[in-house]
UniProtKB/TrEMBL annotation:
<feature type="binding site">
    <location>
        <position position="53"/>
    </location>
    <ligand>
        <name>substrate</name>
    </ligand>
</feature>
<feature type="binding site">
    <location>
        <position position="263"/>
    </location>
    <ligand>
        <name>substrate</name>
    </ligand>
</feature>
<feature type="domain" description="Mandelate racemase/muconate lactonizing enzyme C-terminal">
    <location>
        <begin position="161"/>
        <end position="258"/>
    </location>
</feature>
<feature type="binding site">
    <location>
        <position position="237"/>
    </location>
    <ligand>
        <name>substrate</name>
    </ligand>
</feature>
<keyword id="KW-0479">Metal-binding</keyword>
<protein>
    <submittedName>
        <fullName>Mandelate racemase</fullName>
    </submittedName>
</protein>
<dbReference type="InterPro" id="IPR029017">
    <property type="entry name" value="Enolase-like_N"/>
</dbReference>
<feature type="site" description="Increases basicity of active site His">
    <location>
        <position position="290"/>
    </location>
</feature>
<feature type="binding site">
    <location>
        <position position="263"/>
    </location>
    <ligand>
        <name>Mg(2+)</name>
    </ligand>
</feature>
<feature type="binding site">
    <location>
        <position position="180"/>
    </location>
    <ligand>
        <name>substrate</name>
    </ligand>
</feature>
<feature type="binding site">
    <location>
        <position position="237"/>
    </location>
    <ligand>
        <name>Mg(2+)</name>
    </ligand>
</feature>
<feature type="binding site">
    <location>
        <position position="100"/>
    </location>
    <ligand>
        <name>substrate</name>
    </ligand>
</feature>
<feature type="active site" description="Proton donor/acceptor">
    <location>
        <position position="320"/>
    </location>
</feature>
<feature type="site" description="Transition state stabilizer">
    <location>
        <position position="339"/>
    </location>
</feature>
<feature type="active site" description="acceptor">
    <location>
        <position position="182"/>
    </location>
</feature>
<dbReference type="InterPro" id="IPR034611">
    <property type="entry name" value="D-tartrate_dehydratase"/>
</dbReference>
<dbReference type="GO" id="GO:0046872">
    <property type="term" value="F:metal ion binding"/>
</dbReference>
Amino acid sequence: MRIVDVREITQPIASPIRNAYIDFSRMTTSLVAVVTDVVRDGRPVVGYGFNSNGRYGQGGLIRERFRGRILEADPQSLRDDARDNIDPAKVWAAMMANEKPGGHGERSVAVGTVDMAVWDAVAKIEGKPLFRLLAERHGREANPRVFVYAAGGYYYPGKDNAALRAEMRGYLDRGYNVVKMKVGGAPIEEDRRRIEAVLAEIGAQARLAVDANGRFDLETAIAYARMLRDYPLFWYEEAGDPLDYALQAALSEFYPGPMATGENLFSHQDARNLLRYGGMRPDRDWLQFDCALSYGLVEYLRTLEVLHQFGWSPSRCIPHGGHQMSLMIAAGLGLGGNESYPDLFQPYGGFPDGVRVEEGHVVMPELPGIGFEGKSDLIRVMRELAP
Ligand SMILES: O=C([O-])CC(=O)C(=O)O
Ligand SMILES: [Mg+2]
């Protein structure tokens, strides 16, 4: 049993949207296939992965460093002998050979993307959904019903508050009961009007979260906190720079409501610093670490261990990224839910065909692996890379 190839192709996921920091006009993702020599149902098992939006495709790093380290490793050294499978932690260690600590940068995206494909293959080799495999290995009860919220509310040319309201109405019509919009990309009074427009639209049917994408300095973050606390928001996300833990800590004095951050932290060490120094409150705040950007599930398990040490429940995690991998982790390991982008980043984001959002939840079907085979537009592009 061995990994015989690791393939990567960088694909566009461009759209005309903009948050407070970047536009997505040239956004890309790396699509990866990990090809094994294991045969199931008459065909070789192939695991697939991709990185989530916000960071660009990582073809250079994957091809120059990580692919070769996996393919050159002694296949025996990557095996999970106890289970007659591939061991994701050993593949991870092979990828990270000769990598110094720190400087996580985009290396964590490259490794996270390959790691997703490895877990997909491992669960397919066991012939079960990844969420069931994870629950079994961690002695937990799986819960395939997962909370999801609709992320959108971007800025884009010509978008007025009527269009913003219509967008949010569309999410409610599709079964969501928490929606998210961007702030910080317009003057504060204009953002206030945008928020009031959305709150008027959603009424008591849903809650609203807002996301500043790390745009604010301390003064602006506080000014927004004072404005936002007039409203019963679901959360105030990523006010300041992701590594500015002192800003995050100071903000809790000005914002008693829930806050969320972590999508731009890429390792368990960064996550630990956030919990040590960021003043995050385990009774109300949310952690958004996204395994596809942060060294994958092998590393995310270390991050969950850090949470445990600091007295945080995994149910305070609602990862960034809107991909099925985090849905699997949520269903298998008891996270609080997952992000979803109903209208963006297709075909990568979203759910298997036929999965409907009801009262803000989806139920994951019993598909082997991560379940990409259940999403016809996605598996089509995946099979073009490796059938
Ligand atoms: O706009 C982005 O970069 C995505 C983002 O922050 C989110 O989904 O929370
Ligand atoms: Mg965000």
